[in-house]
Amino acid sequence: MTSIPQYKRVLLKVSGEALMGKREYGLDTDTVNAIAADVGDVVAMGVEVSLVIGGGNIFRGVAGAASGMDRAQADYMGMLATVMNALAMQSALEKRDVPTRVQSAIPMASVCEPYIRRRAERHMEKGRVVIFAAGTGNPFFTTDTAAALRAAEMKCDALLKGTQVDGVYSADPRKVKNAERFETLTYLDVLSRDLNVMDASAISLSRENKLPIIVFNIHAPGAFAAVMRGEGLFTRIV
Ligand code: UDP
User: Fold this and answer.
1) Ligand 1 contact via 55 beta carbon (within 6 Å)
2) pLDDT tens digit sequence for 70-110
3) Would the CB of 51 count as within 6 Å of ligand 1?
4) What are phi and psi of 217, to 5 degrees?
């Protein structure tokens, strides 16, 4: 296997739902371990990797608000959920001897580091996987936006979005048989066609910062490493 990565530094966004496996809620350890294995392989290629993990497998602010909670309060709960996922991923990576640091946008001194941009960059230079937890630290945002924000701050070469399918399709390929898969899209295509990739603020932020977004299947073993070599199936948004 040739392993010449095409990227020096990347940020991978994994949704909370991707960690559920076949469960309806919470974390599936085998799924977390499988993703950690793929991350470890990419680190072993010499790529500097950071992660943003969502919280939708545990709690979403929108759902809390729909059931009558104050939206901002519910969003803070959602952000705390992402910290749990980040700790689970840290544990899975460290079991594989991949050095990691969790940095939270909401300071939580006894659990992880606070988010400090320059320190995070230093960790990455040293080959540590930095897991950014608690989203942006602000309610009314999503972890997609947090991923675009941190990727821009870390001067990443690409923002990877790990999804359930191998790229962006014209319709959900699990429901629509002849849905078209795109090789390349522009940021404006995604926004104007309302393609379900990441939320609009994440796309806009990536566009402003000329940050390519690469969408691939997080559950295909080895896909993350393949994407790093420019191989396999993915959609590139530029
Ligand atoms: N959240 C927030 N601000 C942020 C990031 C996340 O308030 O910057 C909250 C929001 O309530 C969101 C929840 O955290 O619903 C979980 O994040 P998200 O829905 O993005 O997770 P994913 O869909 O990726 O699992």
Assistant:
1) yes
2) 999 999 999 999 999 999 999 999 999 999 999 999 999 99
3) no
4) -85, 110
| Domain edges within the chain | 9-237
Report the predicted TM-score, pTM, of the whole model to 2 decimal places. Answer: 0.97
- Ligand 1 atom closest to residue 74's alpha carbon, by position in its atom list: 11
Backbone angles phi, psi at 114, to 5 degrees: -75, 160
Strand pairing category for 48-53 and 100-104: unpaired
What 8-state DSSP symbol labels residue 16? G
> Measured from the CB, is residue 16 less than 6 Å from ligand 1?
yes
Contact criterion met (CB below 8 Å) for 131 and 51: yes
Torsion, CA 208, CA 136, CA 196, CA 24, rounded to 10: 160
Element (H, E) at 87: helix 71-95
Q: What spacing in Å lies between the alpha carbon of 152 and ligand 1's midpoint?
A: 19
Question: For domain 9-237, is the CATH number 1.20.140.10?
Answer: no
Q: What's the complex ipTM?
A: 0.99
Cβ-defined contacts of 183-191 (< 8 Å, 24+): 183/235, 183/236, 184/235, 184/236, 184/237, 184/238, 185/235, 185/236, 185/237, 185/238, 186/237, 186/238, 187/213, 187/237, 187/238, 189/237, 190/237
